[in-house]
Amino acid sequence: MESYFILWPNDWCKSLAQANDYGPLQVIYGGPHISVPSLGKIKTGDIIYPVSVKNGQLFILGRMQVERITDATIYLTQQDINRINNDLWDTTAPKLIKERPELGHKIPRSCINTAATGSGTRFRFDFQVPDNTIDSLVFGPKAGQEKGLSRDKAGRLTHVALQGHFRRLSTDSAAIVSDLMQNF
Questions:
Q1: Which domains are present in the chain?
Q2: What is the pTM of this model?
């Protein structure tokens, strides 16, 4: 079992809060673009933590253990979620979240091709990771290739450090985050 961070844009988090979507977290999509990266090496049993970065601070939004990975079209059909006028999801998502706010995070926000579904926590948009904890977290594709998150010239964490990929946490980092989540 591996643990991963995935960056969710602040505007998407704001839309979810406005739609009163506080979970539980049930689906995380994968796709072909940097805004919704491929699920790639994610497999059943893995833990995914959606995160956001605001004003140089890292926030954990929730946690989901993957129970299944399926084709996104199949998942959307099962959930009766359809694009409006066959528009792209980028265009449909803002409209659909207003028309059907109960769908919340189940609405894709961009092009997708897979859906990881599972059992998740509720959402929180205020669960800030302490700076000293951020500095102890390392990520990488496999053991021995892990490194910390980069910061800008002012020493602030930016979204660039997390965008574009599901970031695998080292075993020790996964344990740190799991302990931190006891207070979630």
A1: 3-174 (2.30.130)
A2: 0.94
